Amino acid sequence: MACAAALLLTNCDTRAVPTVALTGVDVIHRDGFFDVDPGFFDLRLGHAKQLVLISDAAFLPATWVTENPGIATVTPTGLVRAFAPGTVVITVTSTTVVTRKKTVVIRVF
User: Fold this and answer.
1) Of 72, 80, 99, 102, which has the most beta carbons under 10 Å away?
2) How many alpha carbons fall within 13 Å on the CB side of residue 81?
């Protein structure tokens, strides 16, 4: 489970620049964070695996698409099901803030 925190710095004195030191945290850039876990995996025929979108809430909802539904399908929530041997690429896209895309390569055996 991800945790979030916000920090607001207010500077009423234009001569001073507020600074803060952060340790043990991931810095999220202004344009946000968008990733998929896992980025590559093997999947047995007939099995399924849930992909996880790791993202700022600003990038939700996202759309999941398979390049070859004959090999594996993906649900709107990122659940992948394997149907035939081969390699397939699943792409998750968000266009809510800025367009973001991530791909997952899956080898079905």
Assistant:
1) 72
2) 9
**Residues whose CB falls within 8 Å of the CB of residue 70, separated by 6 or more in sequence, listed in order:** 83, 84
Domain 34-108 listed as CATH 3.10.310.30: no
How far apart, in Å, are the Cα atoms of 20 and each of 7, 15, 37, 53, 78?
Answer: 10, 17, 31, 29, 37
Beta bridge partners of 35: 54
65/8 Cα distance (integer angstroms): 37
pLDDT in tens, 11-61: 555 555 555 554 554 444 445 677 888 888 999 999 999 998 888 766 778
Long-range contacts formed by 82-88: CB under 8 A, 24+ apart: 82/43, 82/44, 82/45, 82/46, 82/47, 82/48, 82/106, 82/108, 83/45, 83/46, 83/108, 84/45, 84/108, 85/45, 85/109
